[in-house]
Amino acid sequence: MERTISLPDELLAQIEEAAARQGKSPDQWIEESLRAQMDERSWVDLLGYGRKTGAASGYSEADVPEIVRKRRRSIADAK
Fold it and tell me: Does residue 1 sit within a domain?
């Protein structure tokens, strides 16, 4: 589904210049930029969730290697 959006003339000019430098249309440049921003936001959200749940677990970063070793051992033993 396509939508029409409005942008200030100054911002549109910057987008057109950036797109031209990369050999892309403004639409392509905007789509790629928005997708990259959304991917980045997903990582930021995931890291925030990890910090929150990690803090709630009571474990520290120093505990992680041993936890991973134990988990890998239990997976190997289950096979």
Answer: no
Tokens of 64: 């992680």
Question: Among candidates 16, 19, 14, which has minimal Cα distance to 32?
Answer: 19
Q: Show pLDDT as tens, one digit a residue, over the chain (79 residues).
A: 888 999 999 999 999 999 999 999 999 999 999 999 999 999 999 999 988 998 899 888 899 999 999 999 999 999 8
Q: Is position 28 within any domain?
A: yes
Q: What are phi and psi of 20, to 5 degrees?
A: -60, -40
Q: Which residues are within 8 A (CB) of 64 and not within 5 positions of it... i.e. 6 or more apart?
A: none
